[in-house]
């Protein structure tokens, strides 16, 4: 089985989706996850320290970013949350895949996800998620259909 290193960006209230996501991927890949979650707790509160000691090394090691998109995503910490992780991965040229959890829509995307994500995959599309990690381009809306076109400024048409 092929090994895939990933970093899962998520709002802290979306912790419950991490293990099910890894289970979906685990059917096709041996998943090695460097993301920050409650299984690797820390008491850090300084955003610069968090980025330097946890986020940058984890994203660099993984070389790819999966973002769990939920109703909470837009409320992520702007200094060291989802948008920062997406912008960092984009600057490094790493592939970015947005995964809509059940109930999430395009309205829950952050500006950086709208601008930089390479792939958009609905939660129940395991084949699409596996394909995105393999390098395919998947552009799926939260409803399972084609992703709506987005014009400058993140406005869906």
Could you give a short description of this structure?
The protein is 32% helix and 20% strand.
What does this 3D model show about the protein?
By secondary structure, the chain is of the alpha/beta class. It has a single domain (2-156), classed as 3-Layer(aba) Sandwich (Rossmann fold). 32% of the residues lie in helices and 20% in strands. The protein has a five-stranded parallel sheet with strand order 2-1-3-4-5, sandwiched between helices. The chain has a two-stranded antiparallel ribbon with strand order 6-7. Helix 3 (82-92) links the parallel strand 3 and strand 4 (96-100). Helix 2 crosses helix 3 (82-92). It is globular, with a radius of gyration of 14 Å. It starts with a strand and ends with a strand. Residues 149-157 have low confidence and may be disordered.
Instruction: Give the low-pLDDT segments.
Output: 149-157
**Number of extended strands:** 7
CATH architecture identity: 3-Layer(aba) Sandwich
Could you give the order of the helices and strands? EHEHEHEHEHEE
Write down the CATH class: Alpha Beta
Q: How would you name the CATH homologous superfamily?
A: Response regulator
**Lateral strand order in the biggest sheet:** 2-1-3-4-5
Mean pLDDT: 83
Structural class: alpha/beta
